[in-house]
Structure formats: structure tokens, C-alpha cells
Write a structure and sequence with these properties.
The structure holds two protein chains of two kinds.
Chain A (H helix, E strand, L loop, with lengths): L6 E7 L7 E4 L8 E8 L7 E3 L1 E4 L6 E8 L4 E6 L5 E3 L9 E7 L8 E9 L7 E9 L8 E4 L10 E7 L3
Antiparallel strand pairs in A: 1-13, 2-12, 3-9, 3-13, 4-8, 5-12, 6-7, 6-11, 9-10, 10-11
Chain B lengths: L6 E7 L6 E4 L8 E8 L8 E6 L9 E8 L4 E9 L2 E2 L12 E7 L9 E9 L4 E9 L7 E6 L10 E7 L3
Antiparallel strand pairs in B: 1-12, 2-11, 3-8, 3-12, 4-7, 4-11, 5-6, 5-10, 8-9, 9-10
Classes of the chains: A mainly beta, B mainly beta.
Chain lengths: 168, 170
């Protein structure tokens, strides 16, 4: 049997005071695919907000489309990002949104696509879940990932994990 | 110690274009399977489908599926019963150079008492398609063969990758 390969590369738990972004840098080219998981809440005034994920710290060349549900209806739209949702400051206390992003072949010379699952449940009418398709139209290998709260800061106890998966 | 996760079982990287991908003689040693596809089709597009089997691919009307589908402007849902395969990517996949991401989770694939279900997600920005689907194979046979194929016979382009992983519960 081959060796199991889902291996933790790096993690970050936000401390008091919060941070506006988390960056996983110097990602080794050892793996075939990457998986990013985060649990987040931000200081934005509102129940929810989007999260941006920028490969190699670049805010350009990213695009995404999503399909989601609110509990009362469905939606589909397109954006220049596909980094999931986060709880905001008026969401039910102690609730954090959860997001998982799968990035296959992150070192290839093709454009990089990724698949995002994201959920925000806060025991209130404004809750969301979505599947997002993301594309980074750049042929460079991904060597870092910046996860950004565009309109606030990630609060204490937000967590971020980066895993590597190898196909052999 | 927890069970092994993401153990690579087999991988196929296309050095030449082919119209279908088949994994055979899949080990029964795991609890679940995950198939990761990073692939593209010609600009003309096609629809990619899933079939499974035990020893050979089942081409009978033993499949059903339900899906949600987004184009970037419209959300919809649909289903198909007594079908000869299940949906993986929709009706207009493509094009050419932008490789899409597909993830298929086969749960409890090796049991011989229940019908088999799987969940797939397909993310194709350039083809304006994001969808999630649940598939059912009405058979109590273990799955040891999986096939991805294109309905009108388009080829997956060179460089497309397909990797099958095993997940153990214990």
C-alpha cells in the first residue's frame, strides 16, 4: 500500500487583535494538490462577507462563479474571487464560517482551477452555503497563498490550515 | 492511530488524448474513494459522465442522479432516473486550455449490502459551470471499476490528470 499523503504543511490560529490576512508562504513543490481549510469570523459590520484567496499574493487574474443557497432560495453569480464566505460581526456570537478549497496540480504550467465549499450557519435567517469554481489565469506555480478579509480583520480563534496531497 | 487518508491508488496523466478514463481492479481495502480530476476538453465541449461496476462497467439503466447547477447568472436543479450513467460535468464543458477541477467522493464503495452513492463537484469557470451532484448506482455489488467518459466522444486533452485515492475509517 502506498503511503497516506494528506499532510499538514502549515497552520495559523489568529490571536487577540485579529489580522487582516493570513499568508502561507514558501509552499514546497513536493505535493500534487493543495487543500486549504479555514474557519473564520471578521469584524465587518454585517452578518457575512466574502473572503479573497490570492495565489502568490496577486490580486489579478482571479475569477470565479458560484451556486448557493440561503435556506429560502438559490443564487448564482460571478466574481473576481472564489475564497468562500466568512461570518461578520453581527452574526450570532461564536459562530464561524467554514471553507474548504481544493487546488489540483498547483505547480503545473496550466492555469489553476480550484473548487471551494463554503458554509455559514448562524441560527438565523441569513445563512448561506455555496459551491464555488475558481480560476487563477496564470501559468506560474503557486508558491504562496494569501487569504484576505477585504472589509475587516479575521477575529481571534479564526483558524487556517494548509495540507498537501501527493498522487504517488 | 486514525485511518490512512488520501492514499494514492492510481493516477493517469494523459500523454495522448483519450475519450474515456477507466480505473480497474480497485483495491477493496479502503472505506471510501476520492477521484480528483483536473481536465479539459476541446473547445467544442461535451458532457462528461460516470459509470461504475464490479468486474465490468454496468451500462444498464441502474443509475439516478440529482444536481444543482450554476452558470454564474442562473441557478437550477435537475434529476434523472433509470439512467445508464450519472452526470459529472454538464452539457457544455470545455474549453481546451483551462483545466477544470472535479472531485468525486464514493462512500462505502466496497460493501455488498447497500446500493452505492457518490457526491461530485465540478468547477469550470471558463465553461461557466459549477455544479454538485449526488449519484446512485442501484447495485449491492462492490465497486471495483470506475469510468469517466464523454457523451459524444470528445477526447480529454493531453495533460489532463485523474487520480484515485483511498480513505480508511480505521
Amino acid at each position: 500500500m502506498a503511503n497516506p499523503t494528506m499532510t499538514l504543511i502549515a497552520s495559523n490560529t489568529v490571536g487577540s487583535g485579529g489580522v487582516s490576512s493570513v499568508t502561507f508562504s514558501s509552499i514546497p513543490a513536493t505535493w500534487t494538490d493543495l487543500v486549504v481549510k479555514y474557519s473564520t469570523r471578521t469584524t465587518i459590520s454585517g452578518i457575512s462577507d466574502d473572503v479573497y484567496m490570492y495565489p502568490n499574493g496577486l490580486s489579478t487574474n482571479s475569477s470565479g462563479i458560484q451556486i448557493g443557497g440561503t435556506g429560502a432560495g438559490t443564487f448564482s453569480n460571478s466574481n473576481t474571487y472564489a475564497g468562500g464566505f466568512t461570518d461578520g460581526s453581527t452574526a450570532t456570537s461564536n459562530t464561524f464560517a467554514n471553507t474548504e478549497i481544493y487546488i489540483p496540480n498547483y505547480t503545473s504550467s496550466n492555469y489553476k482551477s480550484h473548487s471551494t465549499d463554503t458554509v455559514l450557519e448562524n441560527n438565523a435567517t441569513a445563512s448561506y452555503m455555496a459551491l464555488q469554481a475558481g480560476l487563477w489565469s496564470n501559468t506560474a506555480a503557486i508558491t504562496s497563498l494569501q487569504i484576505l478579509a477585504p472589509n475587516g480583520v479575521f477575529v481571534q480563534y479564526s483558524t487556517f490550515y494548509l495540507y498537501g496531497i501527493a498522487s504517488s | 492511530m486514525a485511518g490512512a487518508t488520501y492514499v494514492p491508488i492510481a493516477t493517469q496523466t494523459l500523454g495522448s488524448a483519450v475519450s474515456n478514463i477507466t480505473f480497474t481492479s480497485i483495491s477493496q481495502a479502503y472505506t471510501d474513494l476520492v477521484l480528483i480530476a483536473n481536465f479539459a476538453l476541446p473547445a467544442t465541449g461535451d458532457a462528461t459522465r460516470i459509470q461504475v461496476g464490479n468486474g465490468s462497467i454496468d451500462t444498464g439503466t441502474n443509475y439516478s442522479s440529482t444536481w444543482i447547477y450554476g452558470t454564474g447568472s442562473t441557478a437550477s436543479s435537475g434529476r434523472a432516473s433509470s439512467d445508464t450513467s450519472t452526470r459529472f460535468a454538464g452539457a457544455a464543458v470545455g474549453p481546451s486550455t483551462d483545466f477544470a477541477t472535479g472531485i468525486i467522493n464514493f462512500q462505502n464503495y466496497s460493501n455488498t449490502t447497500t446500493y452505492k452513492t457518490w457526491i461530485d463537484r465540478y468547477s469550470g469557470v471558463t465553461s461557466s459551470e459549477v455544479n454538485a451532484m449526488v449519484g446512485l448506482w442501484r447495485s449491492t455489488s462492490a465497486i471495483n471499476t470506475i469510468k469517466l467518459f464523454n457523451v459524444v466522444g470528445s477526447n480529454f486533452v493531453v495533460g489532463s490528470t485523474f487520480t484515485l485515492y483511498g480513505i480508511s475509517a480505521a
